[in-house]
Structure formats: C-alpha cells, structure tokens
Predict the 3D structure of the following.
Amino acid sequence: MNKEDQIKKWLNDELTPAERELFEQGDDFGLYQAVVNGGQQFKASNFSEPEAFNDFKSTYENKNKPAKQLDWFKPILRIASVLVIALGVYFMFFNTNITQVQTLASAQTTVELPDQSQVTLNADSEIKFSKKDWNNNRRLNLSGEAYFKVAKGKTFDVVTYQGVVTVVGTAFNVKQRNNYFEVQCFEGIVSVTSGSYTKKLLAGDSFRILNSVFTEDKTTITKPEWTSNKSTFKALPYKTVLAEIERQYDIKIITEDVDTNRLFTGGFMHDNIENALLSITQPMALDYKSNASKAVVIYGNKK
C-alpha cells in the first residue's frame, strides 16, 4: 500500500489493526497526529469549499523533497510544514461543501440560494444544501418550516423525512413538524411525494398529512401568514398550537387538565405574548398563568 492510500485509510479509520500498528510506527506518524489534533481547533465556515486530497498530498510530498538546510533552520521548517498541512486538513475534513442555515426559537431569516431562489425560514427550522453542486442539483433538506420562491431552471427538490416536494419555478410553503407535514402552493405547480403517494398541487391547493391521515384543502392567501408574524391553524390538535407558540416566543408551556388533542382553529400574533396567549386560550375556555420556573401554565376547569 502506498503512502497516499495509507493516509487516506488512516484518516477514514479504515486501517486493519495490523496496518494501523505498522502505520503508527512510521517516522511521520507524530506529524500526522499533530495535524489532525491541530485541525480540530478550527471552526469551519458554512460557506467555504473543501480542498482536494491532492493538495494534502502535494504539500506532504514537497515537505519530503530532500534539500540542504542549516541544522538550526530544520525545526522552523518542520513547524511551518505542520501549519501548512494543518490548513489543508482543516479545509478538507472540517470544512464541507454543505451549507447549513438554522434559525433559533422566535427567529426568522431569509436566505438567497446560488440561483437567486429565496428561502424564508420560520422559527426553529433548518436547511442544508450543496453550494458547490447547486447548478447541477437544486436539492436541499428541510427540517421545520420554510417559504420558497424558486427561480426558474432545473428541477428543485425540497426533501423532508416525511416527503419530497418537487418544482421547476414557483412559490410554496413546506411545513414538517413531528407527525405533521403540509405543503401549500401559491404559484405554479408543485409535485409532492410522500411514501408511495404523489400529488400535484396548483396555486391555491394545500396538502396535509397529520398522524398518517391525508387531507386536501384550498387557500386564498398569496403567501404563508407566518411571514407576516402571524401563526394560523385550521382544525389542528391543540398540542400543535402549543408547540408553535413555544417556538415563536421561546417559552415553555405546561398544561393542566387540558385535552391537547382537541382541534383548534384560529391564530396568534408574534409581537405580544400576552395577546398571543389570550388568542389561544379564550376560544378553548382555558386560562393561563406563570409559575415559579417562569414557564406558562395553561389550565382548564376541574370537574
């Protein structure tokens, strides 16, 4: 096995015990270990591109070319070599071509993709995509909820663990939370695939899977209301509403004597927590209070 293959297999933890023992006995093993240990101290940027393995190889080979040097200069060269190789390992192993964007509770953000498509992320949501390969593969992974305005071009896929949404150029919203998966189409045509089921949505159509039950509906709005700081619900379990207000206000909700499976239709604004709590408790004949741990307790009347 040549040196390049040894390094690759060692970095990927693919050496057999016998190969690892032989590799670790090599004169340069201490250098390789120092490189990896040093590289772990770096923090990769979400928007950087990885270096090829050949850059690592080239740096290593240049370091090992024989040259006449003064003895006092050798330690300096060795340190410099470690730093150069460490940077190569940093770019190659700790910096991937996957861009990740995540929002915290009570936050939203808008991201422009490489093709000028736009994604607006709702609170506590995340997307991942390959910036380097975007022109050939317009595909991203979503966890949470996001509103998409897709530039015309090749097929655009939004992948969630509950289904895949495919478009060419359109505006739509995808929500994926626990056992709840919903797609709303505002412009163009959207194809939704969940398991063995595929459905095409036109503007104004919505597709929902709640606890494995599929339903279709219509909408007259032109964009999701959460982008205007309002969360709305139509015949959804109350626990879904509670989870969303926790997400939008970064609070903890505790329920007492509340049927959280009861269906709720209504909504709340994101700019005033007192008004929001009133909006979700009064229609359900519930009350709320804050407890010692600063959580909000929503409670019903005991019978």
Observations:
- The longest strand covers residues 138-149.
- Helices lie at 3-11, 17-24, 29-39, 53-63, 74-93, 238-249, 273-281.
- Residues 3-93 form one domain.
